[in-house]
Amino acid sequence: MAFQPTPTDVSVIITSASMARPGGESEPRFLNERRITPTWTVEQVKSKLETMTGVPPGCQRLRVKVHGRPDVWADNDAQLIGDFGIAKGSEIEVHDSRPLAMRPNFTDLSSVEKYEMKPETYETLSDSVLAWKRNQKLGRFDPNALSPEESLRKQAEKDRADIASKGIAVTKRAIILPSSPPHIRRGTIRFVGPVPTIPLTGPARELEKSDIPAELQPLWVGIELDEPTGKNDGSVGGQRFFECPQKCGAFVKPEKLEVGDFPPLGLDDELDDLMEEI
After folding, report:
1. How far apart are the C-alpha atoms of 250 and 255, rounded to whole Å?
2. Which of 17-21, 91-95, 187-191 has the lowest mean pLDDT?
3. What does DSSP say about strands 10-16 and 91-96: parallel, antiparallel, or unpaired?
4. What is the pLDDT of residues 141-176, one digit of tens each?
5. Given 1.10.8.280, 2.30.30.190, 6.10.140.1670, 1.10.520.20, which CATH number is that of 148-263?
6. H/E element, 35
7. Which residues belong to any copy of the Ubiquitin-like domain (predicted)?
8. Where are the alpha helices (DSSP H) in the chain?
């Protein structure tokens, strides 16, 4: 019996044909590389590719692309894949014959059940961030940390002091800090006061907003920016506090503002040109 050498594996590119889904969304095009043994049958190749593409062998149709040759459909499962002349750099394109409705959509997460841990369960874990903070006596575990009420009161007092010292008032011009050319965000102050729809931060997060008295409410400054570099139109969380074009509204803490005689953007350039003419 003559010696039969073992066929050399061939490195082949595996792709998955893209097909548009209803609504314009397209299936992702899979791209990988796989070593293929030329003596495998088409059926064996399909079984190997199932783990790569997620397409069952019976639903696969393979299109073989070899450089310098016309593309060929490998429709005979008993035929050897080597008969198609595959070489390094050849491509096998996998087509899924199932209707779109029967294909799993791995990009749609709306139907995926999400796991949510109960707060009381999280509290008992020994390897969580909360446990680390507890061991390091950080945050609410710091014996010297302010209570949520004290923290909120301190913030409200600071907000009022900043508003008074900076002269923050409606209709005044201001810039948002930090601000340096060419990234200067300036505008007109349109609102000063509490914004209940903005979530609390720090220790105050534990408090119910409905239970917070008016004197402890954090203060915000609503500014209408000269350019659409903001995040809203003067409304937050479905509640409106002032009117301005979309993307021209921003709410910032008083400490982040500087009030002054800041002309609207573009006007200062005109003044510079005028001074040059004079």
Report:
1. 14
2. 17-21
3. parallel
4. 888 877 778 888 888 999 999 999 999 999 999 999
5. 2.30.30.190
6. strand 31-36
7. 36-94
8. 42-53, 119-124, 129-136, 148-166, 267-277
